[in-house]
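Possible regression after last week's pipeline update?

I re-ran a chain I had predicted before the update to compare outputs. Posting the input and the new output here so someone can diff against the archived version. Not blocking, just want to make sure nothing changed silently.
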Amino acid sequence: MKNILYKPSMFNRIVHDKSDGIIVLYNSYIGVDSIQEFNISESDYILSILNNSELNISEHDETIDLLVHKGFLVPKDVDEKLRRENLIVKNIQSNNLHLVIHTTENCNFRCAYCSLDFSNNNLNEDVQNSIVKFIRKNITSYKTVTIDWFGGEPLLNINSIKNISSQIKKICHMARKPYTASITTNGYLLTPKNIEILLNGNVRKFCITVDGTKSIHDKQRFLVNGNPTFDKIINNLRYFRDHIKVHFDMIIRTNVSLEISQELNEYYMFFNEEFGNDSRFSLFVRLVGNWGGERVKLFKDSLLEKSAYKALFRTMCKIKREINFNMNISDLEPAGSVCSAVYCNKFTIDIYGGVHKCDTPSDNNKIGYIREDGQLFIDEDLHNKWISVYRGYPQNCDNCFFSCSCFMLSCPKDRVVMSSKNCKDLLEGVDELILLANKTKKDGNIYE
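New output (post-update):
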């Protein structure tokens, strides 16, 4: 390290936490592993280093050694924007096949804020066979295969999951390609029989929504007939905890409304007591958004501004708990805050065989269809709009510390469909999220 010129990384973020008397450093090119805490008494020295545009390091200094090791100091002649460009290209051009498959347009819930209109239509056998044919024909072109089961409520058509999964498993086994799967479900139909089918189909990641304590959840997420759902979902989660011995990731998502934000402590402590001793369970929070449709109009008084993320993450920091928030913390990783729609080999297939980029299919994100013979017909011009990161990003994004995580667009739909280039919402609460990651790291429960 001697006699080498260094400079502060453009991807650094310095967060002051006066309540704990610390400063926390983060670098989006490195991600969560970069996070480093210093006492406030060290802050003047740290800031003097990181505010210096050029350092000639000629003597051993443990603090400077650490800053170099963590990526906060980089060689003076390094082109960090080129590093970012290579990171983006590597991720977007990855040859990992990622399919989001919708099994049905129906749902047994009628959530208060849901934007979808439902029908009784399911993924038919012809489209199922087309998907399998596509994978069989193209398996050698891909490094891995990942399937996300989606809906509506995907478990309403569990047979399609069972059918497609069994065939993909055989194809990937013969080709010696890793095959993983996940499911986004409301959790109501996670019976022991369905759990067995899912596990046999390589599903190891589950995302289930629970909106707060019982009283609030049952007002926001109820059955078609209006009946409550909280107790049934929690009992299904307990079955996972007590009877499933294989490893899985159970992400309990909460769409936070005004009412939930007022009972966060009670809500978190409930899940901590139930699942805090099982590292397979984690909590994940997002604010309820105005995702369109008619229902949300009656729910508008319960919507929170994006600035509420700051208070959310502060509260999560203060709660003494074992259960982790790894899914939220993963937003800080390189590529962690960009939607997978930007990846060239990620596609969503609707029940009719339409191919889309967004997880929720619609006419404005459709780019093609899957043919009966298993060939994907893709309009390349439409597809290119979704995967072209450097097209039309705001100028301030080019120098933003967070650009290695969000790829300067976060949601490609905002740019392609909405012609929006405002990323302010993405940065709301990011400092508090960094502090949460640091707290989780100190507790020995860091995101992996």
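Follow-up from reviewer: compared with the archived run. The radius of gyration is 23 Å. Marking as no regression found.
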